């Protein structure tokens, strides 16, 4: 009959076996350290270096401004007229609405979305962002009025 709970006997570990295990562990640590050092090394060969250095400078490509003074440069760098300022105003309003909706929900919880939107629209009427957004619309109205008069 077998004895319950007895484990098989283990062999005695000799000093030589312990020394061999230490050497294997030390060698494994050295291999890991060498791999880490190789990863940190920033050495490149000549071909890679030439590939990094011999690249055309594209910073000035596309900048075809030939001006002798500031006025000429500004004339060449000006943006075309904004044909759809309404879209920009709507984008301003949408961004304003997103920021204000969060604030209003914290200040006045429990309102319906339409109540929040009404409050946001009232804030928009007083907002300096509206003045900035309407700047483009007023410029458009001025230019369209000038073209009608001509």
Describe this structure in words.
Helices cover 67% and strands 0% of the residues. It has 150 residues and is mostly helical. Helix 4 (85-107) packs across helix 5 and helix 4 (85-107) packs antiparallel against helix 6.
Between the first and last Cα atoms, what is the distance in angstroms? Answer: 118 Å
Mean pLDDT: 80
Radius of gyration: 37 Å
Shape: flat
Number of strands: 0
Percent of residues in β-strands: under 5%
Task: Estimate percent helicity.
Answer: 55-70%
Derived structural class: mainly alpha
- Biggest sheet, open or closed, and with what strands and sense? none
Q: Please, how many helices?
A: 6
What is the string of SSEs from the N terminus onward?
HHHHHH
Poorly predicted segments: 143-150
Keywords: Coiled coil
Organism: Phtheirospermum japonicum
Pfam families: Ccdc124 (PF06244)
GO molecular function: transcription coactivator activity
List the defining traits of the structure above.
150 residues; mainly alpha; 6 helices; flat; disordered C terminus; coiled coil; transcription coactivator activity; Coiled-coil domain-containing protein 124; Ccdc124/Oxs1_C; Ccdc124/Oxs1
């Amino acid at each position: 009959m077998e004895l319950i709970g007895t484990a098989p006997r283990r062999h005695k570990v000799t000093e030589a076996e312990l020394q061999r295990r230490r050497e294997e562990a030390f060698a494994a640590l050295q291999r890991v350290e060498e791999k880490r050092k190789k990863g940190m090394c920033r050495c490149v060969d000549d071909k890679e270096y030439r590939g990094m250095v011999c690249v055309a400078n594209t910073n000035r490509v596309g900048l075809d401004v030939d001006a002798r003074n500031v006025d000429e440069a500004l004339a060449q760098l000006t943006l075309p007229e904004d044909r759809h300022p309404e879209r920009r105003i709507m984008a301003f309003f949408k961004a304003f609405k997103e920021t204000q909706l969060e604030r209003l929900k914290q200040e006045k919880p429990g309102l319906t979305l339409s109540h929040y939107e009404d409050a946001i629209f009232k804030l928009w009427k007083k907002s300096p962002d509206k003045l900035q957004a309407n700047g483009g619309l007023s410029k458009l109205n001025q230019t369209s009025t000038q073209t009608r008069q001509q």
